[in-house]
Amino acid sequence: MTRRLLVAITAVVALLGFAGATFLYDRSTEEKRATAASPQDHVFVRAHSPVVGPENAPVTIVEFFDPACEACRAFYPVVKQIMAAFPEQVRVVLRYTAFHKGSDEVVRILEAARLQGVFELVLEAVLKAQPAWAAHDTPDLAKAWEAAGGAGLDLQKARADMLMPDITAVLNQDMADVQAVGVSQTPTFFVNGKPLPSFGAQQLYDLVEREVRAAGGRPNE
Question: Which end of the chain is more exposed for a tag (fewer CB within 10 A), N or C?
Answer without folding.
Answer: C
